[in-house]
Design brief:
single chain; 255 residues; alpha+beta; Arc Repressor Mutant, subunit A; Beta-Lactamase; 2 domains; 6-stranded antiparallel sheet; two-stranded antiparallel sheet; elongated; DNA-binding; GAF-like_dom_sf
Length: 255
């Protein structure tokens, strides 16, 4: 006869409800009232009010006595500063990227944006004998790489136009997209699919699948699977897309 355990369940129902309230305050455009929070979380006003009272006493929220609206408290500022100072996307993503490398047996790259370039901060080599040109610390164009295009697909119209104004789309190979119109069409497809493709656009005979890493409107970087094109038939490519999306979901849930 089986037994049930609570080992996998989070401890502290009130803590979970408090986080739901804080998440609600973070997500709303206009500071909410008690009624707004109660309605938005489908919870009773007395319960929400008790938790808000505790959060307010701790400095995690504050209430405007005139408008009755609630705001996130400044107590979060030092926490945020500490989190940013100690955050390392490589450390967070590496276990998931190692798993992706082992499942695909191909090279996995992790990059961040610096000065409108993708800077490679981690590279997990394929166990095969073929080595690709990229090196940790090296840079690549955003418009010609899978990671870069995945990031560009997160830009709004103003950011994208600023990028086009400051960057000439110089061909890296005969397959590089070199006009803003065609690149914008490609970015639209990336937005729909969640996956960016570099089909010999950055390096001949190399095919890459990339995805951006973002959460709560914050962009953390991007990662990609890189492989010689001859090793990626249609069926294997479809499997890689699923693995890429699963890995992105796992990393973003950890952020």
């Amino acid at each position: 006869m089986g037994t049930t355990t609570n080992e996998s369940k989070p401890y502290g129902t009130v803590l979970i409800k408090a986080k739901d309230i804080l998440d609600f305050l973070l997500a709303t455009t206009d500071p909410p009232t008690l009624s707004d929070i109660s309605r938005g979380l489908h919870a009773s006003k007395p319960t929400i009010l008790k938790i808000l009272g505790t959060l307010e006493s701790l400095g995690f929220v504050w209430r405007d006595t005139t408008t009755k609206q609630y705001f996130l408290g400044t107590q979060f500022v030092p926490y945020a500063q500490k989190a940013i100072a100690t955050f390392n996307i490589v450390r967070v993503a590496r276990p998931y990227l190692e798993d992706l490398r082992d499942k695909t047996q191909e090279t996995i790259n992790l990059g961040i944006v610096r000065d409108n370039k993708m800077i490679l901060v981690e590279k997990l080599e394929s166990p095969t004998s073929i080595k690709l040109q990229s090196t940790i610390g090296g840079s690549m164009n955003m418009y010609s790489s899978a990671m870069g295009k995945a990031v560009l697909a997160t830009y709004d119209a103003k950011e994208l136009q600023a990028y086009f104004k400051s960057h000439k789309l110089t061909p890296m190979t005969p397959h590089t997209i070199t006009t803003p119109t065609k690149l914008q069409q490609d970015l639209k497809t990336i937005q729909e699919l969640g996956v960016a493709i570099d089909n010999e656009e950055n390096e001949e005979e190399v095919y890459c699948l990339g995805a951006a890493l973002q959460k709560n409107g914050e962009l953390y970087g991007a990662f990609s699977i890189s492989t010689p094109k001859y090793r990626l038939p249609k069926e294997r490519r479809a499997a890689f897309v699923r693995l890429l999306l699963d890995t992105r979901h796992a990393i973003e849930n950890t952020l």
